[in-house]
Amino acid sequence: MFYVLRDAAGQIRSLHRDPVVGAQTLPEDHPEVRQFMGLDGDAQQFASLDASFLRVLEDLIDALIRRNVLCITDLPMEAQLKLFDRKHFREGAHSHSLDLFNPNAPRSVESNTVIAEWHDLPE
Question: Is it the case that residue 30 has pLDDT exceeding 60?
């Protein structure tokens, strides 16, 4: 249950979990609450498309830098920091995943576990 404050036009201005003077109560699954929270179908689908598009832009920037068309220092410092943060996060997430397509890839140096190759295992 949410406590909802509305503006003069009747639109939700704020949501609260605790009681607020003058607030109306609405269930969490109410369409207006979901829309205000950005959980309606269209908004959620659009956010997913935005996330996918950001990945495309990041890959495009990487390709331009690799081909020496763009230098990372050509971008504003804020953009550089955001790109480095995303790249660091993606590399960190990737280093903790299993690469089934490249079993000979070097394993993370953080791991002290030695994994035997298939041909080294006793029968």
Answer: yes
